Structure formats: C-alpha cells, structure tokens
Amino acid sequence: MKLFHTTLLTLFFSISLGYAQKHTNKALSEIDSKQHFYGDIAQSIWEYAEMGYLEEKSSALLQKTLKDEGFTIKTGIAGIPTAFIAEYNNGGPVIGILGEYDALPGLSQEAVPEKKSRGEKAGHACGHHLFGTASAATAIAVRNWLKENKVKGTIRFYGCPAEEGGSGKVYMVREGAFDDVDAVIHWHPSSVNAANAGAALANKSAKFRFYGVSAHAAAAPEKGRSALDAVEAMNYMVNMMREHVPSDSRIHYVITSGGKAPNVVPDFAEVYYYARHAKRDVVIDIFDRMVKAAEGAALGTGTTMEYEMIGGTHELLPNLTLQKLMYDNLVSVGGYTYTTEEKAFAEKIGKTLGIENVDYDAPHSIVPYQETGTPGGSTDVGDVSFAVPTVGMGAATWVPETPAHSWQAVAAGGMSIGKKGMMVAAKTMTLTAIDLFSSSETLKKAKKEFLEKRVPDFKYIPMLDERDPALDYRK
Ligand SMILES: [Zn+2]
Predict the structure, then answer these.
(1) Distance from residue 215's CA to the centre of ligand 1 (Å)
(2) How far is the C-alpha of 369 from the C-alpha of 336, rounded, in Å?
C-alpha cells in the first residue's frame, strides 16, 4: 500500500511538473520566436537615444508595444510625462518589472567596433534601450502565461525615465506607485551574465548657489562681496570634514560657476556636490553638515546662499530569497555563443579595451553566485528596493570587460550582441516572475526577509526631499 501510495504520488508530481515545465518552455519559446520583433524595438530606441525626462519617442514606443498586447496604460506617473505603468490585472499577487530607456549625453557612436561618433548626440552607453525592451518582453510573456494557465496574478511594467542622474524612480516611489506590489524584478545590461546580490551607495546631490556683490576688483574691492570666496570657504570646510566622516564615505564636487573675470568681484558662484555612503542615514548626516558649511561660508563672506536638491537615492536592499531564485533561473536559461561575425566584432572591441586575455567565451557562462556585492555607484532602484522586495540581474549585452558608459557599450548595444544578451535577461525574468506567481510561499518568505532587513521602524525619507521632478535637468 505504501509503495502504491508513493508511486501514485510520484506519478502525480511528474504529471504536474511536466505540465508546468511544458508551459514554462512555451513562455520561453514565445520570447525566442519574437527575437527580431523585440530586437527592432530596441534598435529604434537605440536610434532615438533620448536623454532623461526627454524620452518621448522611446516611452511612446514601449507604451504602444504593451498597449497592442492589451495592457492598460497609465501615463504621467508622479508628474513625469515619460513615466508610465502598463498593467494586466487579473487579481492575485502584483509583480512589477522595471524598464528604463534614457541615454547619456555626448556618447553617440556607430554600431561598429572602432570609435566613430555620430556627433554631439546622446548614446545608449548604459544599454537602457535593451533594458526597457527586454522588460516589456517579459511583461508580455508573463501575461500570456497567466492567461493560458488561468493563474490569478497582476503583471505591471514600470516605465522608469531618467535613471542617469535624474532619480526618476525616487519620485515614483515617493508618489506610492509601488505600494501594492509584492515583488519587483529588474535587470541591467552588463559585460557578464550574473544574478548576484547587488550593492549601491545611497547618495544626495545638490547645487549650492552663493550671491555676493560685484565691484571693480582693484578700484573698489571693499565694496564687493565675493560669491567665489564663499564657494572656496565651503569647499575648505567640507574638505576638512572628510577626516570626521566614516572613511568609506564619498564626497565629490565641481565648481560649476566661479565668476567671469578676475578684475570683477564675482556676484554669483555655484558648486555642485555629491555625498555618498553605503547607508542612507550616514549620507543624510554628511549632507546636513555640508549645508552647515555652506551657511557658515555665506556668513563669513557676507554673501547669501541657497541650494537646490538635484538627486538622491537609497542604497540597494538585497533580497536573497529572490536572488537565489533568479540565479537558478539564469543558470537554467544559460548564456549564448557568438557567431563568427560577432566573435570578430568582439575581438576588435577587445583590442580597444586595453586588457589582455579577454575571455570571449564569457557570454556563454554565468558568474558564480555571490551573496554580497561591492557598492560603486548609485541607482534609483535603491528606493524601489526599500518599498518592495526587489531582485535584479545583469546580462552580457556588451563585449566582456567593457565598462558601462563607454563607446564600446554603445557599439555592442547597437548590434546583435546586445540583442542576444537582452534575450537572456527577458527569459530569466520571465521564469522568475512565473515562479513567484506559482509559489505564494516564496513571496511570503521574500516579504519576511524584506521586513527584517529593512528594520521594523523603517521610515522612507525621499533623499531629494520635496522637490518636483527635475524635468529640465538635461536641457
Ligand atoms: Zn544604467
């Protein structure tokens, strides 16, 4: 009887597993069959190369793609014209997929393996044309899976503008756009395939503006009050402060206006500051002390000061429950191999990177799983990760060893290598979303981990305060 029971159980599970497997495979082959369709969309966005908050055509194309598939579109999220949410609502848990589509100023480049600019235009040097497109492909594939399998679930594509310095997602989080979401999935173009726990620095950036009195610098200097003196006094104090902040803090500045001529006492000067650290609260403390230094500088130089918040993001809150799941899915999707033409292209790019022994087989493999990352830059995904359990990955859309924000990244993103990497991301995110819709236990576990890591008395503080979206920051 026991034997019979076990056999029956095994039979039952192999039937149901087989059923699930078949349907998951169908979702993957659906993505594969639309490779050219999605490749063309990514290529159009690569051509548009629109900068933060100016991504009108890119946003419209992704909206159209999702609308044509029956998604409901809501635009103007958080007062940002190019931000949107596309939703398929069938009750159940809500899973969000992030998509970005902004380009970087001055980085235009032809899709060739040598430096060849397209002039003063922007370029997709961070691969966000692939980012937005693969995420839209994921949302569509998951929607089809939900429908075919009659599963209760809501899939949402978040069209997130201005990641590069515009902190677009922070306004969306501040507005509560993620409040009812159970998990968020995202990815980023990369030179390798990896689904490790990421890390990012929290940051606050602001422009400090000083106003003085201009006068002839030789004939009547006593009548003048130098705004540049105030900038220098502030910088002096902040530079002394470096000794008295946690040693892994980062403080950087540029003087964006320092007067026009030495014989005129400058009546206006401006300095643009960033403060960063792996913990939000340390950044808040450093920034508040920077403001005090600015106030002191104004007081001591007889000038006045005001500052404008420009950007501000949280660090990344990793979720290992989701991360391990995504890693396993990435392994099962696997990497890809180059065609002869792609290999030749990659080798030419490789020669320009100044690195010996580039491993051109890297896109075929997956970087081994790691539970901790080293923070380098900052991302507005950080704020999302404090609002909802969030998981991300990277896919090899660039030739191995290529740094982000380089012409080499634009070049690979404009040809088939970028498109192949994008498919790896779309398939891995699709499997991850399907897993989450299939297991309320995993969602529960992820939520528990999220609440524990975020600490019980956590209060969200938007790092750019109450300011309106800086829609003109690239104009
Ligand atoms: Zn990016």
Answers:
(1) 46
(2) 18
Q: Which two tokens stand for residue 291?
A: 């403001």
- The residue assigned the tokens 């990277």 is 394
Q: How far is the CA of 220 from the centre of ligand 1 (A)?
A: 51
**What spacing in Å lies between the alpha carbon of 80 and ligand 1's midpoint?**
19
- 124 C-alpha to ligand 1 centroid (Å): 9
Q: Is it the case that residue 2 has pLDDT exceeding 80?
A: no
Q: How far is the CA of 187 from the centre of ligand 1 (A)?
A: 10
Distance of CA 169 from the midpoint of ligand 1 (Å): 13
Q: Per the structure block, which two tokens stand in for 281?
A: 């609260």
Residue 138's nearest CA partner among 82, 78, 69, 73 is 69
Ligand 1 center to 102 CA (angstroms) = 8
Global confidence as pTM = 0.92
Gyration radius of the chain over CA positions? 25
Ligand 1 centroid distance, CA of 188 (Å): 7
Residue type, 133: T
| pLDDT for 68 beyond 90 | yes
Cβ-contact 335, 366 below 8 angstroms: yes
What is the 99 CA–ligand 1 centroid distance (Å)? 11
CA 125 / ligand 1 centre spacing (Å): 8
Q: What is the Å distance from ligand 1's center to 131 Cα?
A: 8
Strand pairing partners for 85? 74, 158
Q: How far is the CA of 406 from the centre of ligand 1 (A)?
A: 12
- Give how far Cα 224 sits from Cα of 145, 163, 260, 265, 268, Å: 71, 41, 15, 6, 12
> pLDDT at residue 394 above 60?
yes
Ordered DSSP codes for 168-217? HHHHHHHTTTTTT-SEEEEEEEESSBB-PPP---EEEEEEEEEE-B--BT
3-class DSSP assignment, residue 440: helix
Report phi then psi at 157, rounded to 5: -100, 125
**pLDDT of residue 20 exceeding 70:** no
